Amino acid sequence: MKNLLLALSLSLLIGTVFTLNSCKKETTEDDSVSAQDAASVMGGISTTADDASASAGQVSTFTGKTQGLYAALCGVSVLDTTSNSQQISITYDGATDCQGFKRYGSITVSLTGGTHWEDVGAQLTISYNALQITDVLSGNTYTVNGSHTITNVLGGLACKIPYGLVTNDSTIHTNATTGTGMSITFPNATQRNWTFNRSSKWSSVYAGGHNTITVTEYTTAAGNIDIQGTNGYGNTFTSSILTPIASDNMPCSGFYYLPYQGQVQHQVGSRTATVTYGTNATGTAIGNPTTCGSGLFIQYTNAANGHSASRFVPY
Question: Total domain count for the chain?
Fold first, then answer.
């Protein structure tokens, strides 16, 4: 089964890029680029953190038992679990399109908290060794250095759920990803430091002959800010998850894992763009796990000059 977090990250990215490009401002900066950068980098980091979690769930030195290679990691050319029993090295091929992202370079995964990765409160430290993340949709490449942690909040192995190994799970597994001072090099060669705080929940419920798998992204940070820093133009920005973004494997418009609810906001100075998922053409939120919204709705405002605009984008 495809990785749910990859699918969710891709859907978030597509929505942000295509909607914000329609909202032009009377400034020399195009906030759609800033929003696209935030979505691309966070999407790439989220998918890479998911790889780290999946690999840690399969290595005996991290789990205390051999789980078996149930999850083939997309775009990985080398998975080294033998050179150092306390670390996992993942090298990406730079060529494989992993549902919207290509990655080149390597990361190192270390177990830094808890006896085993499935323990409550266990932490993985992910170190980025000049990892290049390419957004296939835009063609932009970002280079990431530094390290961040993911925390297993409730215990268990969340990475089993997307691969169908947990068919009825009443426990919601949560991985919290936090990073401070991650170095991001943008396509225009500028380099900035970002801080982020995002959590992901996985759950599955079997009913009516179908296993419904749900993934939700949210933040516990103050002000709901999951990403903050300076964009490629040198302007301070924040990206906030105002309402948790939920997606599941029930088909919407013939496709799986399109967000059926959630709201995100990208702000640069006085300019704000808010995207609501799972709406109808007028922007009314109608999405739920069984009744899918037909698209997403963006609202743009500039408090400095009173300008506002809106647009609906169908799934």
Answer: 1
